[in-house]
Design a protein that fits this description.
236 residues, mainly alpha, Serine Threonine Protein Phosphatase 5, Tetratricopeptide repeat, 2 strands, elongated, TPR repeat, TPR-like_helical_dom_sf, TPR_rpt, TTC12
Length: 236
C-alpha cells in the first residue's frame, strides 16, 4: 500500500514537472521567434509564469490544509534589459535565468530548513532521553515548523505528548498528520493504540490494533508483543 501510494505521488510529481517543462519550452520558442507578435506573446507569458509560481506559505495544523500564496516578486528589470531590450521585454536567456534562479533558491531554502529540522530533532531526542519532556515538545514543535511532512517528527511529538499526559493532542498528531502522511505506518498505529489504551478508550484501542495487523501482516508477532506490554502495564 505504501509503495503504491509513493509511486502514485511520484507519477503525479513527474507529470507536473513535465507540464512545467513543456510550458517553459513553449515560452522559450516564442521568445526566440522572429515573429514580433509571437515574441510579445512569449514575453507576456514569461512574466506571468515567473510571477505566478505558487509557494507554500504555511500548513494549518488544525484544518490540515495547505495555504497557497502567489509569489508576486517583480521580475528583475536588469535581466529584462538584456540584449538592448526595453524593461517590458524579456529575452529567452533572461527568462531561463529567472527560472533557474527560482528553482535554485527553492532547493537551497529546502536544504536550510532540513538542516534546521535535524538540529532541533537531535536536541529534542536528547531532552526526551533525559526526561525533560516539556523541552522536548518545544523542540519538536520547532522541528515541525521547518519540515511539515515528516511522519517521524509527528510520531516523536505524539510520544512526547503521551509522556506529558496530553492524550488528545497526541491523537491529533497521529490521526491528522502521521497517518495521513503514511496510512500504513506501524509505529503510528501502535502509538495511537497506546494513547487510546492510556485514556481508557478500549473500543478505539482495539480498532487501532486491528488496523495495525491488517496493514502490517508481516509484523504480527511484534504487534502481539506490544499488546502484551500494554496488558502488563494494566496489571501494574
Amino acid at each position: 500500500m505504501e509503495a503504491s501510494s509513493a509511486l502514485g505521488k511520484t507519477d503525479e510529481e513527474f507529470c507536473n514537472f513535465m507540464h512545467r517543462v513543456t510550458e517553459v519550452e513553449s515560452i522559450i520558442k516564442k521568445l526566440a521567434s522572429s515573429d514580433r507578435e509571437l515574441q510579445n506573446i512569449g514575453n507576456e507569458e514569461a512574466k506571468k509564469y515567473l510571477a505566478e509560481q505558487p509557494i507554500l506559505e504555511n500548513i494549518d495544523e488544525e484544518k490540515v490544509a495547505l495555504k497557497i500564496t502567489t509569489n508576486r516578486t517583480i521580475v528583475n528589470q536588469k535581466a529584462l534589459q538584456s540584449d538592448g531590450k526595453s524593461p517590458n521585454e524579456m529575452s529567452q536567456e533572461a527568462f531561463m535565468e529567472e527560472v533557474s534562479q527560482d528553482a535554485d533558491k527553492r532547493y537551497k531554502d529546502r536544504l536550510v530548513r532540513q538542516e534546521k529540522m535535524e538540529t532541533f530533532k537531535k536536541q529534542a531526542a536528547l531532552s526526551f532521553r533525559r526526561g525533560d519532556y516539556e523541552r522536548a515538545l518545544v523542540l519538536y514543535n520547532k522541528a515541525i515548523e521547518q519540515v511539515k511532512d515528516s511522519v517521524l517528527l509527528y510520531n516523536n511529538r505524539a510520544l512526547t505528548k503521551i509522556k506529558l499526559g496530553l492524550f488528545e493532542q497526541a491523537k491529533s498528531d497521529l490521526k491528522n498528520w502521521a497517518l495521513r502522511l503514511n496510512e500504513d505506518c506501524l509505529k503510528s498505529w501502535l502509538l495511537l493504540a497506546k494513547t487510546n489504551f492510556l485514556s481508557g478508550n478500549s473500543g478505539e484501542y482495539e480498532e487501532c490494533i486491528s488496523q495495525a495487523k491488517k496493514r502490517n501482516p508481516g509484523d504480527i508477532q511484534f504487534i502481539k508483543g506490544a499488546i502484551l506490554d500494554y496488558a502488563r502495564k494494566m496489571e501494574d
